[in-house]
Amino acid sequence: MAENLDYLGDVDPTAPKLGSRDIANRLRAAILTQKLAPGAQVPSQPALSDFFGVARETARRAVDILKAERLVITRQGSGAYVRAKTQRPVELRPHIEAAFERTHVAIDFAGFSGETLRDAITEALDKVRAGDLTPESITIRVMISDMTVPMALPARAETQSDDPAVRERANRITRRAADSIIDQVQELSDLGLVRSAQCEVRVHSAAPLFKMYILNGEEAWFGFYPVIERTVSIKGEPTAIYDLLGKDVPLFHYTVSDDSASHGTQFVEGAAQWFDSVWDTITREYEA
Which residue intervals define the domain HTH gntR-type in the entry (predicted)? Predict the structure, then answer.
């Protein structure tokens, strides 16, 4: 029986055949939306070839693109599978919830948009609303790139340079995440559920290349943004851009210990010093 690949979208038999990058884009979307869950087998090359009406070599190159992005792995004689690392963002969540068990909660984030932070703190904030978590103060600082000024990334792939239309799209993503965090934290303050709850967002002109979380000055999570080429819709037109792959990147975890010379302690302290140095110098106020 043929595999049901309808989740990969429609195929117009009258349109030009899709290329390997187009097929990779559809597979990537299925992985990131977990239509292909971590650990699931990626459709075989013959199945992809039949579904999209392309040569098997085209299907193979599509899977190779996802291998290069570390979204899939191959097992000899068995095929390709979605990497379990796509579960990484879930791993951050319990640490954030644990941070909210403290009397005073302090979270610093630096990165592109804060989407992952927004998703990770929502459950903890819901528990504060329900009275299951009762911190006395919450202080969240979010430091992100200002997508209203020229950036090296994201960029239009064709010109490999800044493009206001590409940034406009990125700015919408950034604002959606940042505004949501601000609103959720402000709501706790407005309802009187937390004695002091504040979220401050500041922006800077440096392109986003990594993301970092610092929880209560005791833990730090760090991850690089791989740069990928993909096609997105900008003003209704398919546009190839160099974009940042942020949601599923591996995060490296560091914790403070009793040993001041330990790698974890030094990393967390260094991360906090770096954050404060940028926050206090080249950032400016974010206009919500």
Answer: 17-85
| pLDDT one-digit tens code per residue, 72-108 | 887 777 788 887 654 444 478 888 988 999 999 999 9
Does residue 273 sit in helix, strand or coil? helix
Classify residue 73 by burial, with Cβ atoms within 10 Å: 0-12, 13-18, 19+.
middle
- Dihedral sign for Cα 184, 189, 194, 197, please: positive
Token duo for residue 40: 């699931």
Dist CA 226 CA 9 (whole Å): 25
For residue 128, the SS3 value is helix
DSSP string computed for 7-54: GG----TTSPPP-HHHHHHHHHHHHHTTSS-TTPBPPPHHHHHHHHT-
Q: CB-side exposure of 217: number of CA atoms within 13 Å?
A: 8
Question: DSSP class of residue 208?
Answer: P
Closest CA to 90 of 112, 122, 127: 122
Alpha carbon distance 170, 232 (integer Å): 11
Q: How many angstroms separate the CA atoms of 197 and 139, rounded?
A: 6
Residue 112 φ then ψ, to 5°: -80, -65
d(CA 80, CA 67): 9
Instruction: Determine how β-strand 137-145 pairs with β-strand 104-111.
Output: parallel
For residue 81, list its beta bridge partners.
Answer: 41, 73
User: Encoding tokens for residue 137?
Assistant: 């103060």
